Sequence to fold (176 residues):
Amino acid sequence: RVARRLVGDDGENTVKLASATIRSVAVGVLGIAFIQAVLGGAGMMAVGVPAAGVWALFILVLAIAQLPPLLVLVPAIFYVFATNDSTVVAIVFTVWSILVSFADAVLKPMLLGRGVEAPMLVILLGAIGGMLMSGIIGLFLGAVILALGYKLFEAWMNQGHSSETGKGDNAAAQEN
Fold:
């Protein structure tokens, strides 16, 4: 009811957009970060990196902040090359680490913005900007504000366009 009072007849759609945006950010950003942390931690455990769980937690934090997991995995790669007797294992771990780090490039377009009427780039920029400004709460709030702003701007542009075409039709009718 509050949204209907603030926005008018479009209040229900605004609430649906906000909830879909929050769901999209939760699945897109947090879900992908969790997947990267689990895969990175599993790789580190498989090759014997000490405290792999702690490093996986660092990967999770970095991935939520939209930073590449390679910031944690590159030192782990050097550690594996320095301590492991098998170069093949170290090379396989390097390839695994690169795949884990770039998994977000494949998963984000599939998961982020899914079910939301705003483009994925708008959601991503809102999430990143909100995270930089206000931390974990800003991750969600920034995406919602930018998605709602995008839809309001789009409605405003469409409203202006329809009134211009109406004026053009009246002017053409008056000339005839």
Q: What stands out?
A: Residues 168-176 have pLDDT under 50 and may be disordered. Residues 120-175 form the longest helix (56 residues). The chain is about 85% helix and 0% strand.
